[in-house]
Amino acid sequence: MPDNSHKELTDFYDEATEDYLFWSKSYNMHFGYYRPFRNNPFRRDSMLNEMNEQVYKRLHIGKAPVRLADLGCGMGATMKHGLKAFPHISITGLTLSRFQWEEGNKLLEGYKGTILKENYNAAPFPDGYFDGLIAIESFCHSGHSMKTLAEAYRLLAPGGRMVIADAFLKKPVEQLSATAAYAYRKLCEGWKLDGLGDIISTLKNLEGAGFKNIVMEDISFRVAPSVMHVPFATLGFMLRKTWRGEAIRPQSLNNLKGSVYALLSGMHLRAFGYYMISCEKIN
């Protein structure tokens, strides 16, 4: 990741992370997964926690102690969810944000989880250190690049699994319509993304990195109900700031813009999709 985008991303999350409390009381910094008759589509945190649940389900965690890593862990909400469900595991989270590192570790006190201020593209661990990897809406910050996938493969132990939950392009960026391309560009600007990978190229890159048993699930319609919360959450956040007489910080404004353009991007069904990808390292 270039130094300038690295700094922009760090500044963004250092300044805007606190605002996510308005999105999720648990600091879940991602979209949700809706299951009819299990989640209430009007209760956002129920769907956000269900996304965590679905990711852990695909890791196939057994009864033996295992070491997991959350690559781009945010405030550690997904880590905390897993540590509550599986007390016998340990999880290490990686983030570039000083705020997330300092405050996230406070939220994890009493659990076998630790957040480190490190870059997941150059993690300070030996080969095969982790038994499982999680990447929820984090690899988009490096464009789902081959470098990122290759480093994830290095970190994973033989027999280990990785689960990615993220938005992807359905076609190369140069093939997007004018309106889809505009929404995409603004989305990347608002959320400081290097760019989304297109799903076909990402699957090929996972194979190229060495991953096997790759399973791709299009969960766009499962995610859509939580995406529909964006305009209401954005309006509520703005009204709260106005009521309290608080100025909206530049990074918070970028976050809000990114959220709105995420909604607009999601409306281009032929251009964007939300996928969950599970894969393994065999040897």
What does this molecule look like?
The protein has 283 residues and is α/β, with parallel strands linked by helices. It contains ten helices and seven strands. The protein has helices at residues 3-16, 44-59, 77-85, 98-107, 146-155, 178-191, 199-209, 220-227, 230-244, 250-266; strands at 67-71, 90-95, 113-117, 130-136, 156-169, 212-218, 272-280. Helix 3 (77-85) links the parallel strand 1 (67-71) and strand 2. The radius of gyration is 18 Å and the shape is globular.
Q: Within the CATH hierarchy, at the fold level, what is the topology? A: Rossmann fold
- What spatial form do the alpha-carbon principal axes imply? globular
| Number of domain modules | 1
% residues in beta strands: 15-25%
Radius of gyration: 18 Å
Low-confidence stretches: none
Mean pLDDT: 91
SS summary, helix count: 10
The CATH superfamily title: Vaccinia Virus protein VP39
β-strand number:
7
Quickly give the CATH architecture: 3-Layer(aba) Sandwich
Q: What is the CATH domain class?
A: Alpha Beta
Pairing-aware structural class of the strands and helices?
A: alpha/beta
> N-to-C SSE series?
HHEHEHEEHEHHEHHHE
Strand numbers in spatial order across the main sheet: 3-2-1-4-5-7-6
Q: Could you give the distance between the termini? A: 28 Å
Described by strand count, sense and barrel closure, the largest sheet is: 7 strands, mixed
Helix content: 40-55%
